[in-house]
Amino acid sequence: MLKVENLTVKYGVIPAVMNVSLTVGRGQIVAILGANGAGKTTTLKAIMGVLRPASGQISYQGEDITHMSPSNRVRKGIALVPEGRGIFNRLTVEENLLLGAYSRSGNDVIMKDLKEVYALFPRLEERKKQIAGTLSGGEQQMLALGRGLMSKPQLLLLDEPSLGLAPLVVRELYATISRIREQGVTILLVEQSAAVALGASDYAYVLESGSLKLSGKPEELKSLEDVKRVYLGG
Amino acid sequence: MFSWSYFLQQTMNGVILGCIYALLALGMTVVYGILRLINFAHGALITVGAFFVYFIFFRAGINLAASLLLVLGFGGLMGLLLDVIAYRKLRGGPEVALLITSLGFYTFVENFMKMVVSPQPYSFKTPAYLAVMYKTSLLTFRSIDVFIIVSSLLIMFIFNLFVKKTRMGIAMRATAENLEVAHLMGIEVNRVIALAFALGSAIAAFTGFLWGAKYGQIAYDMGFLTGVKAFVAVVVGGVGSIPGAMVGGFVLGLAEILSIAFLPTRFAEYRDGIVFGILILVLLLRPSGLMGVKEEVRV
Q: Which residues in B have their CB inside 8 Å of a CB on A?
């Protein structure tokens, strides 16, 4: 579904990601783990097209999208739920959701998808006329996810979805992420807290200072001593 | 001696000046919201719009309705070109580059007008049907006053409808709040910005006509102080807020007119000082403006 080859991204002259390659198969949940500043967010932004890679290739469904604009990638079915959720605080909940469908046409299907998102997150429907800035952190994450789904993505990129949420809310969030996958959406997510992400994913990559350090199935990674020490806090 | 009639009369004058500031502030607040740019070029559009109407209406004799449509189109086109030619390439660079560019564009237009048109003010003769006097026991007004208030309210109403209800309008508010996430939504941010410039500039050019028709005189440098005061209205109302821009415009217009109306005559020449005094006061008491929301720190 997604293939990233030898990706290098620089901020000015400073490389944030160096020679990273990864693959995400259709229907999988894949996690990118790593400490703060390891280049996880940068990788996602490059896949979305908001950052231009210095070198490397990104292909999606067999097509080279390395130089495609973000809005065209959205049209192709890629959506990024940014770190810190990126909710439009001054807009209403419903306006936020409808913006998720900005790149699509056809009012009827969009309204149908809106209903589906409301079915997935009933809280959002209760609060649809409310200004999004007044939602709680958990609700904002739901809104960010729902907004991402409104673009009808085939590949959903999630940047630190559990950041700042209470453990109970995180569990609920990951249950929702699994349900989204069951609906046929492929998910690539980035997390600092490895334990929760490993529990939900089929495959994981570990980044360190911008380079790929390890990769493997969650159970393999969990058994590795240094992963335990560095990322699982054990 | 306080007289209700005098008070009402001056309030009306304040509302009219407020309409002009509010219209200008609309375009400035949207552009500021998206680009963090104090768009001095907005002032240039006032001058250019006023002279545009002067030449096509008074000199070329095109009828008023057509002239006004043309000035809206002309202003919109200027705004669009300014964005595409001058501003677009600077995005992503330091914000001050945009500011200097807009100041440069203003300076260019002012000097161009001074050279080509005249350093002397032109008298802007209001057509007879806009100068009809109406007298009531409390209020005396001309048809141009009614025209300014009605057309301004109409423009504000349509503009609000646009940003509240249309897909593009919602995208514009979203872009103003968070440009990067707007990108992620698949919003063509450049198109939204170009539209914001075009709309704001069209309104500014139209406002140039209102100014000329109301005050009877236009000049090559008329846009500067008016533009700056419109930005004061933006700040007073709360930067980036559209309702705030309108409220700020009216507050400023009323304060400017009422203060000179009720202060002793020798204070009249301090009217600009009063406007900036209000700015300082608002910034001291409510730094985010009357209707503003606290600015989130962008990292």
A: 167, 170-171, 173-174, 177-178, 180-188, 293, 296
Q: Flag if B293 and A90 touch (Cβ within 8 Å).
A: yes
Contact assignment for A95 to B188 by CB distance below 8 Å: no
pLDDT tens, residue by residue, B205-224: 999 999 999 999 999 999 99
Encoding tokens for residue B272? 């600009």
Q: Looking at beta carbons, which residues of chain B come within 8 Å of A71?
A: 183, 186-188
* Calpha distance B138→B131 (Å, rounded): 19
Å between B174 CA and nearest CA of chain A? 6
Q: Nearest-CA residue of chain B relative to A79?
A: B184
Contacts of B293 in chain A (CB under 8 A): 89-90, 133
Residue B44 CB burial class (10 angstroms; 0-12, 13-18, ≥19): buried
Condensed to tens digits (0 to 9), the pLDDT of residues A160-178 reads 999 888 989 899 999 999 9
Spatial contact of B244 and B285, defined as CB atoms under 8 Å apart: no
Please state the domain extents for chain B.
10-222
pTM of model > 0.90: no
Structural domains of chain A, with CATH: 1-74+192-234 (3.40.50.300)
